[in-house]
Amino acid sequence: MNSIDEAIKKSGPCIILAGAGTGKTFTIVEKVKYLVENAVCKPEKIVCITFSNEAANNLTLRIDKMLNKKSGVIIRTFHGFSADLLRAHGNKIDIPKEFKILDPEQAMVLLHRNLKVPANYCDKYIGTIGTAKDLGIKLEDFQQLLEKKLKELPENLESQLEKLNFEFQTIHIRKDYYKKKPLVEQIKNIRRIIEMKKFLSSWNAYEKLKTKNKYQDYYA
């Protein structure tokens, strides 16, 4: 199917498979022009969504130029259009209209400044929160897993870790070399649980800060 056919197509799904510089944007502009000039759709009923602000701005300029006026066509990024929808209808799912968007970099700053998370952990924490939510894993799911694991371990993990580290460091004195591998596994396991506790505490506080300050991030 060529560009003219794509521009004229008025109903049903339509896909253009083409490389860079082959006229995909031109086709979109021509299609918008056709729909508007032939009164198929009102401009405000047409939505063009792209990935970047640069692409959205470029498309806006080209469509306005093609129609010789400010078209009224809705041209937004995926994030921008989604934010518009939430501001208009978010109250139905308890999202306030005056919410502020928190991008990943701002989220990391929030963790560091407000929750005192070490800078080198902020990226890891935000990335893990995003991945978990993308996979449909809730904070409560992590907390249940942590509680289950904690039941299998001593109450004071930090003291237990210190004890195991001392035992590991003095193996050569007692010549209990057969204990080395099991000790290493115990130490690793307790460190993982301690790290999980810190992460979940930060995640929980992060969600509370978002609610308090009317923030929305890019994660589900």
Describe this structure in words.
With 220 residues, this protein is mostly helical. The chain has two domains: 3-93, P-loop containing nucleotide triphosphate hydrolases (Rossmann fold, 3-Layer(aba) Sandwich); 101-216, no CATH class. It has ten helices and four strands, in the order H-H-E-H-E-H-E-H-H-H-H-H-H-E. It has a two-stranded parallel sheet with strand order 1-2. A two-stranded parallel sheet has the order 3-4. Helix 3 links the parallel strand 1 and strand 2 (74-77).
Please give the number of β-strands: 4
- What structural class do the secondary elements suggest? mainly alpha
Specify the overall morphology: elongated
Number of helices: 10
Number of folding domains? Answer: 2
In the predicted model, the low-confidence regions spanning at least 5 consecutive residues are none
Order of helices and strands: HHEHEHEHHHHHHE
Q: Average pLDDT value?
A: 88
Helical content, roughly? 55-70%
Q: What is the topology, as strand order, of the major beta sheet? A: 1-2
Largest sheet: 2 strands, parallel
Radius of gyration: 27 Å
| End-to-end distance | 37 Å
How much strand?
5-15%
How are the elements arranged and paired?
Elements (H helix, E strand, L loop, with lengths): L2 H6 L15 H14 L9 E4 L2 H15 L6 E4 H12 L10 E2 L2 H12 L3 H16 L4 H12 L6 H13 L1 H4 L5 H34 L1 E2 L4
Parallel strand pairs: 1-2, 3-4
Summarize the structure.
The protein is mainly alpha-helical and 220 residues long.
